[in-house]
């Protein structure tokens, strides 16, 4: 299971320039979280702070019971072994082939034999669909393959926390969708804690369990996906609508006169779009930490935007979900004995058939890719 990350009052500045201040949030263990924000708001700086590459000016980063900014070098070195990091460009060594790039953390941090290293590397390459490319150099492969190779390298030490910096950077929408499916499938398999920095609105709307938004040197909001996708907070509404109307300007935030002019003209960021069903693992099984569609809205008395939770086949997943859970519990029982009892988000199987497409006539999951 992944590790919870608890951030308290975190502030980072470079000289006189404050990047963000008094940031507090809890990234739940084993869940997928996404961090959004306009360019230049310090999202990558936040990731680097979480892994100890940058030291904050003040505040706390609790990784389990360890406060990262106050660890000794030896303690920090050991704590970093909990992390896997996928950098924006993959950060591969140009002179090494993909096999050696992915094997590097194992050779650096473990005393495993070369035969054991080969087994682990090939397992991770198979996981990200790179078997057969192990002899290629980074300069000989596409941007999407570099991302997947960087992801395989981030996975070789079986991390409990995965930090992923703009995985969609330089990728077309189709490859971004495929990569998102890899993240969902990985989370279902290894139960690691994921934090993904992205600008891709479709990723933010369909992939995570939680969303955060940085703006004006502070964390505007962080919480369950449905909370942000139904929020009337102006900056959240503007960002998720990709609208020119709202507090975000071309450089940073708009000044008061610009906002007043927009208000006087009756301009609005637009209605919130429907909340889509959340993307599911390829095999259709429910992730252990996954929330039922519409559960947050119902618990907090929030009416979601019209048309929410309806998939491309016209199915309403608020209504479909109980039947789907029952169906998947039956599938899990056939493959792994009696189904488990209710978890923190309600009943759901923890084991089931191998990865693959629809099986046995059971309903297709929302957001799955076949």
From TrEMBL:
Gene3D superfamilies registered for this protein in UniProt: P-loop containing nucleotide triphosphate hydrolases
Location of region: Disordered: 329-370
SUPFAM superfamilies named among the record's database cross-references: P-loop containing nucleoside triphosphate hydrolases
Keyword Transport: yes
Signal peptide: none
Sequence ranges assigned to domain ABC transporter in this UniProt record: 5-241
Keyword Zinc belongs to the record: no
Record's compositionally biased regions (Pro residues): 337-356
Keywords, in A-Z order: ATP-binding, Nucleotide-binding, Transport
A single GO molecular function term of this UniProt record: ATP hydrolysis activity
One Pfam family of this chain: ABC_tran
Highest taxon listed in the record's lineage: Bacteria
Protein name: ABC transporter ATP-binding protein
Organism: Actinomadura barringtoniae
């Amino acid at each position: 299971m992944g590790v919870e990350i608890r951030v308290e009052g975190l502030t980072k500045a470079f000289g006189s320039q404050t990047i963000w201040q008094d940031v507090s949030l809890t990234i739940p263990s084993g869940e997928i979280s996404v961090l959004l924000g306009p360019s230049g708001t310090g999202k990558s700086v936040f990731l680097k702070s979480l892994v100890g590459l940058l030291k904050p000016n003040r505040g706390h980063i609790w990784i389990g019971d360890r406060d990262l900014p106050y660890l000794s070098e030896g303690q920090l070195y050991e704590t970093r072994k909990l992390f896997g990091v996928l950098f924006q460009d993959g950060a591969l060594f140009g002179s090494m082939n993909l096999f050696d790039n992915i094997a590097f953390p194992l050779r650096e941090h473990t005393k495993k034999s070369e035969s054991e290293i080969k087994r682990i590397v090939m397992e991770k390459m198979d996981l990200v669909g790179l078997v057969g490319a192990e002899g290629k150099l980074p300069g000989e492969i596409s941007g999407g393959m570099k991302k997947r190779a960087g992801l395989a390298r981030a996975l070789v030490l079986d991390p409990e926390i995965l930090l992923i910096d703009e995985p969609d950077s330089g990728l077309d929408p189709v490859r971004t969708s495929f990569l998102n499916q890899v993240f969902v499938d990985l989370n279902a398999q290894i139960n690691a804690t994921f934090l993904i920095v992205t600008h891709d609105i479709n990723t933010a709307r369909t992939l995570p369990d939680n969303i955060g938004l940085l703006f004006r040197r502070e964390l505007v909001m962080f919480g369950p996906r449905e909370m942000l996708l139904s929020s009337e907070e102006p900056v959240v509404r503007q960002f998720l609508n990709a609208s020119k109307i709202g507090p975000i300007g071309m450089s940073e935030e708009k000044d008061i006169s610009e906002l007043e002019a927009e208000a006087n003209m009756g301009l609005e960021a637009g209605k919130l779009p429907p909340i889509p069903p959340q993307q599911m693992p390829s095999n259709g099984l429910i992730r252990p930490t996954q929330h039922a569609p519409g559960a947050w809205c119902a618990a907090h008395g929030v009416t979601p935007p019209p048309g929410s939770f309806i998939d491309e086949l016209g199915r309403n997943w608020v209504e479909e979900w109980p039947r789907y859970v029952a169906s998947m519990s039956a599938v899990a029982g056939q493959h792994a004995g009696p189904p488990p009892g209710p978890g923190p988000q309600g009943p759901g199987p923890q084991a089931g058939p191998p990865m693959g497409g629809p099986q046995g006539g059971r309903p297709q999951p929302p957001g799955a890719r076949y």
